[in-house]
Amino acid sequence: MNASSFQDSSLYELAASIEQVSQPLQVSPTTFKSMLSAIMDVLSEAQEPATLWMKLPRGYAWSSEVERYQRSAHPDSAIYILKNPQSAYHTPEESDRPPSRPVSGDSNIFDWDSDADSDIHFIEPLPSPFTICSATSLPLAAHSQLRREYFLMVRSPRFSVLLLAHRPRSVRPSTSPDPAPPSIRPQTTAILSDEGNPSRRKHPLLCICSFIPQTIQQVFSGVHQAIQAGQLSEPSPEGQALLEQWDNLTQGEAIAPSPALLGQFYSRQMFYQEELWHRSAADRKLSEQVATLQLECEGLTNRLRIKDEFLKNVGQEMRTPLTTMKTALTLLESPNLRPPQRQRYMELLTKECDRQSALITSVLDLMQLEDHADHALMQPIRLSDVVPGVVSTYQPLARERGMMLAYTISSDLPAVSCLHKWLSQIVINLLDNAIKFTPPGGEVWVSAKQQGDYIQLEFKDTGVGIAPAELSRVFRPFYRLRGHQEDQSSGPGLGLSMVQQLALNCGGSVSVRSRPGEGSIFHVLLPIYNT
Questions:
Q1: How far apart are CA 531 and CA 521, in angstroms?
Q2: Closest to 82 (Cα-Cα) out of 111, 53, 120, 62
Q3: In three state form, how does the secondary structure of 472-508 look?
Q4: 128 exposed, middle or buried (CB, 10 Å; 0-12, 13-18, 19+)?
Q5: What digits encode the pLDDT tens for the residues 61-81?
């Protein structure tokens, strides 16, 4: 007699034919494991001597459940574990998938990508007074129908129970031409999330949990047939001994559990489900916290990078006037220096000192803005109370340069949410910028209008304009616009950066439109103050 003489059957099909399952029950691996743990807990708490027949997925989470039961079970209990042969790892159907790798913790529950069973390491017997129930491993045939099925079947003097799961082929694409039988094909391909976590329902199982003696007896016959087929293809002494004493081992019918034991089982199952729910909720909260921390980390990293670039630019900017002053001082020590040359070098020193002072002041002001931005309390400020006064201070400079400076600010505009000194600084910096880069005979206008929940403050000039390639860089610290005269670009290059920072601190923004030779238009949006 050869191995082909025995063809084992799908245990799920056997049980479904008795139970008359019309709608397959889809459960997650987590739920299946919690039900298995509940059954073992009831057996251990009742100290019920039992014989367990099982086939479990691979992974530490499953083998640890068996080990836990071994340590707490009645000493007269026994465990028989059916396992796929080693050849199952290399069948053509599975050859294109890498074997499952061990994962720590409960994540092994979801390791269903291989048809091989768990690598369960049986516990060695401990010295008295510890007693551990025995466990026997039994091979299955190479092409067993049980390869895609997992089960726990319990037979004891007081009750019997069957927990059976089938992994349908529709869980993932398969290269095998042999589709799953219609009776065990899921009626829907939609996989609902388990406790709100889609990854925990990635591999659904078709499950049957039965206490019906006829169903258990039928499945038990299928287990017997599977063991016989396995022994013909891969004989073992344990399997042969088991088959020889099969009739003595399986005397008596399966017994339905009492209401008390059923209550214990369902109570334990509810306990595990509640535990899973809390764990899932904790995982979701932790995931949200991790996502938030990642965003915060990215923000802090970006801020550190910007500060590093800022400090590097500060150092470079401060080095330039110092170098010029050092050169001028060296030339002043020359004994042959004429009075006009001495005067020119003295003026250069004064100019570079002023430049250094302006740079330091601007840097300190910009850093102070960043430090106090989160603690500033916004105030209702009317543009008509600030803009005219600032414009009047620049009128003499505009007349001196031969340009027109005008403003149009309606007193009916709502107050903006800002600070008086911040709004003044915005107007000063933008006016100074417009006048500096507008040639004689040019014009500068300041106007304002309401746009929804914001007030738009506009600064328009007929100056040299900005090249398109430079528009994206004008608000960067130390970036200097190239004007029509070299001495006009000698400022620290922080004016527009300060305008942008001040607008952001107020909850607004700043933008620019410009064309070379046609002038520029700066728009500052400031939110309307809400009481």
A1: 31
A2: 53
A3: HHCCCCCCCCCCCCHHHHCCCCCHHHHHHHHHHHCCC
A4: exposed
A5: 888 889 999 989 988 899 999
